[in-house]
């Protein structure tokens, strides 16, 4: 539970940084450099203090990265500049939890009891109450639907990636292995880095012919303005894909995916103060009410666990 809550805090910081970089660099490029940084930091950890690329479940962790990072994060970074950070996280995280719980139940046979299901529903309800889009935000219909589709794909990729990590831990434990979260995060990011590298090369190759949203955003910022974004890219990489995902891997080792992802769904609520500072989002009475409902769900889940 503590690992999942820590993941929530780190993901909220990452989402703020990710929104800023994706709206200026473009979703694909921002995500690519974030993963490059995470691969570098996690490689140092895994090859000095961890077990590197060894282990019976290495190939499953790589597949987890292909699904969660290659597919999920690519779609997530396309939704960020279209919906904004809080709404992207709201849609993605609230869909990941039921997708993950259903997938793990059908594939691995992990069931949640009625009390746990009730608490998960309370958490997701609190998030929806707090962060349902208001009339003050106007989004063009085309951008809105592309953002919703991208968030849904991100949720599917993230859910399947999380369940694959759970499966990988089962395989590792059956082989008498207990890999540390930094090592599993590194093995997972390898799969994601390969996928994102290919996507990045294709996008760069087609950049001069393309006239999509990413191209328009990139062309509107000078090289000097882009240079100022690299601290945000670094923080995004460390908070999200390096330490944050390692904490998520730590949580998934011993806790069902549906519970972990439901707790992480509180990320947009934790983001409220940050969004107020960096994106001028208002904290309303509804936001506070929804936050209290979600926290009550987490407390109930902790009690029943």
Folded structure, characterized:
There is one protein chain. By secondary structure, the protein is mostly helical. Helices cover 82% and strands 0% of the residues. About 2% of the residues have low confidence.
**Rough outline:** globular
Beginning-to-end CA distance, first to last residue: 9 Å
Spans of 5+ residues with little confidence (pLDDT < 50)? Answer: 213-218
Report the sheet with the most strands, covering strand number, pairing sense and barrel closure.
none
Structural class: mainly alpha
Gyration radius over CA = 18 Å
Query: Portion of residues in helices?
Result: over 70%
Layout of helices and strands:
Elements: H1 2-25, H2 27-48, H3 58-83, H4 85-108, H5 114-131, H6 141-174, H7 181-206, H8 213-219, H9 223-227, H10 230-254, H11 257-264, H12 267-270, H13 272-278, H14 285-304
Helix pairs in contact: 1-2, 1-3, 1-10, 1-11, 2-3, 2-7, 2-10, 3-4, 3-6, 3-7, 4-5, 4-6, 4-11, 5-11, 5-14, 7-10
Task: Using brief descriptors, characterize the structure shown.
0% strand, mainly alpha, 305 residues, single chain
Summed up:
With 305 residues, the chain is an all-alpha fold.
